[in-house]
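note to self: dont lose this again. the chain is below, predicted strucutre after it. 171 aa total, dont forget to put it in the shared folder this time
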Amino acid sequence: MFFRTAWSLVLRKGGLGIRGIHGPGDTAPSKGKMPPYTNYHAQRSYPMPEEPFCTELNAEQQALKEKEKGSWTQLSHAEKVALYRLQFHETFAEMNHRSNEWKTVMGCVFFFCGFTALLIWWQRVYVFPKKPITLTDEWKAQQLQRILDMKGNPVQGLASQWDYEKKEWKK
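---
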């Protein structure tokens, strides 16, 4: 019931909302957004954003924009850079500049590896029980001697590799 009335209101109004025109990799232009929240989005794969970086200009910037409409030969290098900075946030060199974030990431990785090693050492010392007696070297030697004395698996096993006259392993 509620769905039908809502849907009829949507159809009567002419759609779900106003659709904006926008380019690839970006959202619709922000006409009614507050100044710090714009849709400025520039990256290496899509370097030409739809909106300029600075949307609200002060008096000096507006004068520079008016001077831009004239001949570019009259503009100084600093004014051209200022105009570029009004339109774009970063140059390609700044976008491609490597950051030192990898050092932080590697530091965190090494820290957590060290913490994990410390935790494993603590568990081996204080949490895990002592080794069972069957894992000691004496017990293993006695077990091997017992298998050889019983001549276990004399065709292909351990007993086939043992020389019973010389009491040593065959070469």
